[in-house]
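User: Some background: our group keeps a shared notebook of sequences we're curious about, and every so often someone picks one and asks for a predicted structure to add to the entry. Today it's my turn. The entry only has the sequence so far, pasted here. Could you supply the structure so I can complete it?
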Amino acid sequence: MSIYNVLAGMGSVTPGSQTFDTAGLTSFLIPAFNTMTVEIWAGGGSGGTAYNGNTLSQGGQGGSYVQYVITPSQINIGATYSVYVGAGANAVYSSGGAGLPGTYSYFADAIWAIGGYGGRGQSQSYTPASSYTPSVSVPWTLVVSETGGAGGYGAPGGSVTYAGGGGGGGQNTSGVFQAGGTSTYGGAGGRGYGSWGSYAETNGNPPAGGGGGGVYTYGSGAGGTGKIKITWS
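Assistant: Of course. Here's the predicted structure to add to the notebook entry:
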């Protein structure tokens, strides 16, 4: 056991937290601690698009969320571990095309959350998110796991507690717009296009919100970027 682990076990630690909310790969140096919590949000999916006319599209799904608790004996204190924040999916402009999936996020090549699916278009099915295969097996304790809110298809997006909210469905008709789903700890989903342009679609909010469904002349809403938050005491 290293001196860091000994000190952690004695409670000689400074509580703190660090948040990573920029898409891409970086690293984290494990400090001395007694208890550590890792929260992971994946990127939200983008909405699909509808044709012009009385047609519908689906909002993107919110990115998933996981939370793990780690003890000092379960990790190498003083070592550096990888942190990868998944990007939100880009908007799409194809006629009746499906949205793009959000990118997964992971910590230490060991624990991860899946991105949200891309919403279905008028002529294409939804686009599933890709998986990540951890290279390390760990004994850390999973506390919370939640799937992102569903994208609405001509309907409001699904609401959740921890993960990203789903995007509202696009509705290229005289009807009202469809709201994005909400999330207590994640980002809200984007609003779907509605009422022949009276309401423009919007992007999903970070972390992990799904983009609103749109129409091809204006595009769909993009997904919100993921996030990783590490807290220790």
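Suggested note for the entry: The chain has one domain: 1-233. Residues 1-10 have pLDDT under 50 and may be disordered.
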